[in-house]
Amino acid sequence: MNIEIITPDKTVFKGNANLIQLPGIDGLFEILNDHAPLVSVLGKGNIKVVDAGNQKHLFKINGGVVEVLKNKVLVLAE
After folding, report:
1. In the prediction, which pLDDT does 12 show?
2. Around 37, how many Cα atoms within 13 Å sit in the side-chain half-sphere?
3. What is the mean pLDDT of residues 8-13?
4. What is the pLDDT of residue 48?
5. pLDDT at 35
6. What stretches of the chain show up as alpha helix (H) in DSSP?
7. Cβ-count burial 34-73 (b if 16+ within 10 Å, e if not)
8. Tag placement on the chain: N or C end, fewer CB within 10 Å?
9. Which residues contact 77 (CB under 8 A, 6 or more apart)?
10. pLDDT value at position 71?
């Protein structure tokens, strides 16, 4: 799936990944390929991305929103 993580200053990650773990306001949740459409508010915490080469990337955020649609994940993070 295609993942894009954007902050007000820049794009911090853009590429294909197998998994993304996000800090929701009620706890962590993960998104895998072919996930149902989703829009959710994010809380403070870490985003973990496992890319197509199984390399892990961590990004610290203070909140934001995520949209999932047709194997594209767009994260607007603070």
Report:
1. 95
2. 2
3. 94
4. 97
5. 93
6. none
7. eeeeeeeebeebebbbbbeeeeebeeebeebebebeeeeb
8. C
9. 5, 6, 7, 12, 42, 47, 59, 61, 62, 63, 64
10. 94
Please say whether the beta carbons of 40 and 26 come within 8 A: no
What single letter denotes the amino acid at residue 64?
G
Which domains are delineated in the chain?
2-72 (2.60.15.10)
Q: At 44, which amino acid appears? A: K
Q: What is d(CA 23, CA 41) in angstroms, rounded to the nearest whole number?
A: 9
User: pLDDT tens digit string along 12-70?
Assistant: 999 999 999 999 999 999 999 999 999 999 999 999 999 989 999 999 999 999 999 99
What CA–CA distance (Å, rounded) separates 60 from 6? 12
Q: Is 67 helix (H, G, I), strand (E, B) or coil?
A: strand
